[in-house]
Design a protein that fits this description.
Radius of gyration of chain B: 31 Å
Structural class of chain B: mainly beta
Number of domains of chain A: 2
CATH topology of the largest domain in chain B: Maltoporin, Chain A
Distance between the termini of chain A: 73 Å
Strand content of chain B: over 45%
Largest interface: A-B, 45 and 45 residues
Number of helices of chain B: 5
Oligomer: heterodimer
Number of helices of chain A: 9
Shape of chain B: elongated
Number of strands of chain B: 38
Shape of chain A: globular
Largest sheet of chain B: 22 strands, antiparallel, barrel
Number of domains of chain B: 2
CATH superfamily of the largest domain in chain B: TonB-dependent receptor, beta-barrel domain
Chain lengths: 210, 709
């Protein structure tokens, strides 16, 4: 009888644990898969996976974060200007939901700052000023919330690099910020194995061009 | 014991449940496969992404009834219910429909041109207005390059579709701006008091506008001020014609911005030969304060306070009087408006506002003096109801008081004055039958205390999609406007002037290209007519004037993305005649040119970091009355031509953003003539002498350097 009861208890706990493990497992697999993605199709597949996880785990901001991240990358890869906004709207929807769950999360502000320059590419003349301001605001907030988040610095550096020199951009102005980003990446330890941990390679790749 | 075993047994069964395969294909209505769509069982982890042929397949351990959801960016999410037992489900077919985006929705827009950053359906952005060459950074100058407006160089105000400048009214955040232009001296253009940079949305309606707007016969300009300032910043600009500075402060939900300017054309007038003999060069001093406070996610309080004064003095060759006169102008204007908008709940939105305007103008003509004071105040409340997705209803009421007084010291001391209280109410409903078809019906009622008259005006409009990228829009409306101050001060035994608009518009917009053609017919009645413009006899003024105006406006724009070209062409044809004022017969008024053309071209030159804008404007000859010709208003000026240029260069000086901006008007130096002033008496040969009305200088160059501090 005792054996049966303990067996029963084990089963009940196992089921409860399984639910949590299932989330972690699914995320680990999805994050791994996203890291190897390189085409719009692959990122879309990753985005879909994260979206499926997000609609199951309604209190987790990470699936929403990753889904938004995938769509932002897709928007940068998309060459048809008329589709970009729809993709970015989708990314923004995920971000907005994530902000509701984790309003003080530096990573979300950094990701928001990653979204804005893609909006600018649709209509640089009309949107440049507005979204540049918004982007800087988001980065300031990301840095304020967590000064050790390396992605904020990497994103700031890359924007400055891509701005024309006449506007205060260019390699010379961007370089010191890349250096800061490099240092921050070096010291950065993600909270969990599924927490945001991207940008280090990109940062080094950009720096190797100098 | 048995029960427990049974439970365990059942639990084990759940864990050991065999997998079921679910597969099928996803496509669009026209059969095209959708690749990359997300398909999943709602409430589970199970799902997949469709492949390049739209095929999908995934496994699940679930049983029972589940919803299979299909979603894809830009398409409406669709779902089908599945009853999962222990066999595979194959051959499913799911069809996705395109999401109704803003661009695919029909928009009622007959008569109106909108510039906005937010809406996708518009043809212009606020930046376009600020950077149009030839507009000199003036809102009205930029609207002058749009179809429907006439080029009237000696005025600088908007003349729309055969209508006089007073027939266009300006609103800021829905509140009336009674004196939107600086005071003007004879035969010289004026400009708007407000900088285009204050606004992030502008509507220029050339007719058929909503019942929310009244007291405008031809046209309205509605300007939406910007929301919160993005951040703390200061700015200083040094121009060849003066200096401007601004400082903005930003807190979490509040921002405050202060700008000040001092403009003096003395230096510029010395460099560019003036056709005017300036006794004292024009000076403008002004300041604007902007306060913004966000009260909630949807709520905003906006307050704008502004004052400015302008003065100038010149020797005017008064051809009519055959005399040189010293004309000195002094104007002081202050304007305050405060608005509050918020969603009260999910169904109701409130828009309310209060505004005050005071304008004092002193004109000295030699020893004579005319002192005019205009004061007005406004209260306005609108409620918008969103109860039904298909019907939006707006109701509102509006109260305006207006005090006018004019003291004329000219062979005696005369005081002319009147006061008016204007009560208005309106209701308007928009019915969206589908994304393809929409109707709008409104009614406006007004009562004027000085005229002791009430009027009711219907407004109707509709729009229907004629294709994925095109639509047809219609508008009809009746409009009333009180007679101008210059007549009301002599007589209150008048009725409001009336116009009736009928408009038909076709618009096509695809990717970077937009095309729009609009035909209109406007009928005027109850226009003020008189024998003598300055008579103290009330019976001198009647409402027997009539007129018509019809025409076709065409707009084409092709806006290639960054680095490539962007241009627009606007052409207007107008045919209008009136018998009003002191006209002996029906004739085309002096401000109407039958053909108006503007070509605006903009390009950003990457290698030199320079934004270049050019505008070519053409207007066919305008009629003028030649007393030597027995036929009234039968002569025409030669056509008007102008090419203007604007250059903007952004650079970093001392690691601060610096903008260099140069504008050149009439680059090629066309000799433009706006009309002629004739002597009131013939010379000894029986011929009336004349003097042409020309621009103050042939070319104008203004340079500006702006630092961000």
């Amino acid at each position: 009888m005792k054996t049966i009861i303990s067996l029963l208890l084990v089963l009940v706990f196992a089921t409860a644990n399984a639910a949590e493990n299932k989330y972690f497992e699914a995320m680990t697999k999805a994050v791994e898969k996203q890291k190897s993605a390189s085409t719009i199709e692959a990122f879309l597949e990753s985005a879909n996976t994260f979206e499926r996880i997000s609609q199951m785990e309604k209190n987790e901001w990470l699936p929403l974060y990753y889904a938004a991240h995938c769509y932002i990358i897709i928007s940068f890869m998309e060459t048809d200007n008329s589709k970009k906004d729809a993709v970015l709207d989708k990314a923004q929807q995920f971000l907005d939901k994530a902000f509701q769950l984790a309003p003080g999360e530096s990573e979300l502000f950094a990701l928001q700052a990653f979204l804005y320059p893609s909006r600018i590419t649709v209509d640089p003349m009309g949107r440049g000023m507005e979204y540049m301001g918004k982007m800087n605001q988001a980065l300031d907030e990301a840095i304020r919330l967590n000064p050790d988040n390396p992605r904020s610095y990497y994103l700031r550096a890359i924007t400055i690099l891509n701005m024309p020199e006449g506007f205060g951009g260019g390699a010379a102005s961007a370089r010191p910020i890349f250096e800061v980003a490099k240092q921050k990446f070096y010291n950065f330890q993600p909270k969990t194995s599924i927490s945001p941990d991207w940008g280090k390679e990109q940062n080094e790749m950009e720096m190797s061009k100098f | 014991m048995k029960t427990i075993l049974l439970i365990i047994g059942q639990l084990l069964v759940i864990f050991a449940h065999s997998q079921v395969k679910i597969s099928g294909a996803i496509k669009l209505k026209d059969g095209e496969p959708v690749s990359g769509a997300n398909l999943f069982l709602q409430g589970t982890y199970d799902g997949c992404t469709s492949d390049s042929l739209g095929q999908f397949q995934f496994k699940t351990e679930e049983t029972g009834t589940h919803l299979l959801v299909a979603s894809f960016v830009g398409y409406q999410t669709n779902g089908i219910s599945l009853d999962i037992k222990d066999s595979d489900i194959t051959g499913l077919s799911i069809v996705l429909k395109e999401e109704a985006s803003e661009l695919d929705e029909v928009v009622i827009n007959a008569g109106s041109f909108e510039a906005s950053d937010k809406k996708k359906s518009v043809l212009l952005k606020p930046m376009d207005i600020a950077l149009t060459a030839g507009a000199n950074g003036d809102i009205y100058g930029a609207f002058g390059t749009l179809p429907g407006s006439h080029l009237v160089g000696e005025e600088g105000r908007l003349f729309v579709r055969g209508g006089e400048s007073y027939e266009t009214k300006t609103f800021m955040d829905g509140m009336l701006v009674n004196s939107p232009y600086y005071s003007k001296t004879p035969d010289l253009p004026t400009r708007g008091r407000f900088s285009p940079l204050l606004f992030n949305g502008m509507v220029f309606s050339t007719g058929g506008y909503s019942a929310e707007y009244g007291q405008a016969l031809s046209s309205i300009v509605d300007l939406n001020t910007t929301a919160l300032e993005p951040k703390d910043q200061s700015n200083i600009s040094i121009m060849t014609v003066g200096i401007q500075g601004s400082h903005a402060g930003r807190w979490e939900n509040t921002s405050l911005a202060l700008t000040g300017e001092l403009l003096h054309t003395g230096l510029s007038n010395k460099i560019f030969k003036q056709n005017i003999d300036w006794e004292k060069d024009p000076v403008i001093a002004g300041s604007t304060l902007l306060f913004r406070h966000k009260t909630s996610e949807t709520g905003m309080i906006k307050t704008l306070g502004s004052f400015n004064l302008n003065s100038s003095s010149m020797i005017f060759n008064n051809q009519t009087e055959s005399a040189f006169q010293k004309i000195t102008l002094f104007n002081f204007n202050s304007y305050v408006n405060s608005t509050y908008n918020e969603m009260l709940n999910k169904k109701w939105m409130i828009c309310s506002g209060i505004a005050f305007n005071s304008d004092k103008e002193k004109i000295n003509i030699d020893e004579q003096q005319i002192l005019t004071t205009r004061k007005n105040g406004q209260l306005k409340v609108n409620f918008t109801n969103f109860t039904s997705e298909k019907i939006t209803t707006k109701i509102g009421t509006d109260y305006i008081f207006y005090d006018y007084s004019q003291n004329i010291l000219m062979n005696g001391d005369f005081l002319l004055s009147f006061s008016n209280e204007q009560f208005s109410g309106f209701a308007e409903s928009e019915l969206k039958v589908s994304s393809q078809l929409a109707f709008k019906a409104g009614i406006r009622a007004e009562h004027s205390s000085v005229l002791q008259q009430s009027s009711i005006m219907p407004r109707l409009s509709a729009a229907v999609k004629t294709g994925k990228n095109s639509q047809v829009s219609l508008a009809y409306g009746q409009f009333r406007q009180n007679p101008e101050d210059d007549y009301l001060k002599f007589s209150s035994a008048l009725t409001p002037e009336k116009s009736t608009h009928s408009i038909l518009t076709y618009q096509y917009k695809k990717d970077t290209r937009s095309f729009r053609i609009e035909a209109y017919n406007k009928k005027y009645s109850d226009l003020v007519k008189f024998e003598d413009e300055y008579s103290f006899q009330p019976e001198n003024f009647t409402n027997s004037g009539t007129g018509y105006s019809r025409g076709i406006d065409v707009f084409w724009r092709d806006q290639k993305p960054f680095g490539k070209s962007d241009y627009w062409i606007s052409y207007s044809w107008n045919n209008s005649k009136r018998n009003y004022r002191d006209f002996p017969v029906e004739a085309t008024p002096h401000y109407v040119s039958a053909h108006n053309l503007s070509v605006v071209y903009k390009k950003f030159f990457m290698p030199i970091n320079c934004f270049v804008s050019t505008t070519y404007s053409f207007a066919s000859g305008r009629p003028y009355d030649n007393p030597n010709n027995p036929v009234f208003m039968a002569d025409k000026t030669k056509p008007y031509n102008d090419i203007s240029l604007g250059l903007t260069h952004v650079l970093y000086l001392f690691s601060k953003q610096t903008v260099l901006h140069v504008i050149v008007n009439n680059v090629l130096g066309f000799n433009n003539i706006y009309g002629y002033n004739y002597n009131s008496k013939p010379n000894e040969l029986g011929v009336y002498g004349r003097n042409p009305v020309t621009p103050a200088s042939k070319r104008m160059v203004v340079a500006l350097i702006s630092f961000q501090l």
